[in-house]
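Forgive a beginner's question, but might I ask you for the amino acids of a protein and the tokens describing how it folds?
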Amino acid sequence: MDRIAKVFFNKQLAGILKQTRAGYSFTYDRSYLAEGTPLSFNLPLQEDPFVSDQLFSFFDNLAAEGWLKKVQTKTQKINKTDKFGLILENGKDLTGAVMILRNSNGIL
């Protein structure tokens, strides 16, 4: 089953992050491309989606570490290797300007 998240930067929709059986993709929102700044050096502004068989390092580094990761994986029943799952469950409370919200309604 695919997992989809909306990625916000400074409360503006920046793009869509997806996990499929084939891997991961991130696509900037068209309106964000016109006015936004790149989320990271490795994710420059572009219309074409970024595709990888691994979670992009920018998003991977947003997942909790150490004691907080232990608490989250235990209380939320998430496998400790599922960083995308951790981000989906906790993306509303990330440090900094990035917020990641699960796309539960199927509308992008």
Remarks:
- Residues 3-102 form one domain.
